[in-house]
Amino acid sequence: MMIFQFYYFCIYFAIGSTSSLLSVYFKDQLHLTTSQIGLLMSLSPIVTIFSQPLWGMLSDLTQNPKKMLLIGQFSSILIALMYSTVNSFSILVIMVILLAISQSALIPLSDSISLTYIQKIGGNYGSIRLFGSIGFAVAALISGELAKSYGLIVIFYIFAFLLFVGILIGFLLPSATPTTKKTSVIKGLPYLLKQKKFVLFLFFAFVVFGPVNANNTYFGLYIQNLGGTLTGVGIAFLISAGSEAPFMQYAKRLISRFGMYNILLLSAGVSALRWVLYFTEPPLILVYVSSISQGLTVGLFIPAALQYVKQLAPQELQSTAVTLYASFGLGLGAWFSTFIGGYLSDYYSIHAIYILFALLSFIGVGIMLYLKSTSKIPSKEEIAS
To answer: Do the Cβ atoms of 354 and 278 come closer than 8 Å?
Structure first.
């Protein structure tokens, strides 16, 4: 189990080193406009919608997810090092797309291997995944400090180094193939899209989790706008990402006590209030304190959402259902919020981004209230019929 924990720490440390400061790099180092930054950052989630299923298909075809994971890591290292040498906006577009394709293999294939391993030996996925949150949080702080001393370009070297360490650890991970036969997204789509509750939940993920992911793009710029330094950006990400770990550790217990609907409703409501607060231009210290709320909106949202999706979908379509959920929340939702947010910031101010996020999250509250009011989840027998 410890080898997985160390592996997740390294992978999320690598991702965190760029996620927290890439928009700042575009602004301070390359002097791009906010709309250009929004366009570049919105490319990754939309590319991921198509590239993640491709990695999954290759993994199923080769029956060797570990091999495909190592390929994804190695290609990400090469692309990131090339990325650091590019100044042209048009070439940046290409590099963003290429890195999104290669990097999109890392999390789902890591999860596939770890979940298969856990199913064989027993264990708690949350106790592994929380090390990812810790790695992401620590990366934000350390990357900010190193960037202050050596320049923002250092984030690419940190990313490459930690992925290289991940490759070394990856050779020690157990080989794993899926224990159940997966149904393709294409075959599962017609059935799932006829389920009203499932479609509504996709929109819920779009409007609630999309802004949460898009915030990673603009949060660093927002902190700087309020007078924060690169170290301050690192501290903010440390607090927000670090708060996910304890909530993720106890997510199963909290969901069992309060129910999925209440946890998801709480996540949407807290997100909406957080974005409203940011729109009002609060003191920087209040932004740091409010960052703790990300533990609720991510640390509890992810396990509750996965549990909800799995209960709505039949066994043979659960992988398809999770893929669709990820596509709407991590893909389309993040793309929409990031893309529109960039233009709102250019035409008004960076604070306008957060009124968009708040409005979307309040829509999510309404959707979840409706789902809760019709909360009978169908039994497996009812789904099968």
So the answer is: yes
Helix boundaries (H) for 193-313: 196-225, 230-242, 244-249, 251-258, 260-279, 284-290, 294, 301-312
Q: Which residues contact 359 (CB under 8 A, 6 or more apart)?
A: none
H or E element that contains 219: helix 196-225
Q: How many CB atoms lie within 10 A of CB 163?
A: 26
**For the chain, what are the domain ranges?**
2-174+186-376
What are the CA-CA distances from residue 353 to residues 275, 318, 329, 365 (Å)?
9, 34, 18, 19
Residues 6 or more apart in contact with residue 189 via CB below 8 angstroms? 320, 324
Nearest-5° Cα angle at 203, 265 to 133? 60
pLDDT in tens, 168-188: 998 888 765 554 555 555 666
pLDDT at position 99: 94
Positive or negative, the CA dihedral 318, 321, 323, 325 is negative
Tokens of 21: 């400061």
| 267 closest CA partner among 283, 255, 279 | 255
- For the packed helices 34-62 and 106-121, what is the interaxial angle rounded to 10 degrees? 40
- Contact call for residues 270 and 297 (beta carbons, < 8 A): yes
User: What separation, in Å, do the N-terminal and C-terminal C-alpha atoms of the chain show?
Assistant: 39
Q: Which DSSP letter does residue 297 get?
A: I
Alpha helices in 63-195 (DSSP H): 65-83, 89-103, 106-121, 125-150, 154-170, 185-192
pTM given for the model: 0.74
Q: Which CATH architecture has domain 2-174+186-376?
A: Up-down Bundle (1.20)
- Rounded CA gap, 283 and 271, in Å? 18
Q: How far is CA 17 from the centre of its chain?
A: 14
| Residues written for the chain | 385
- With tokens 């366009």, the residue in question is 39
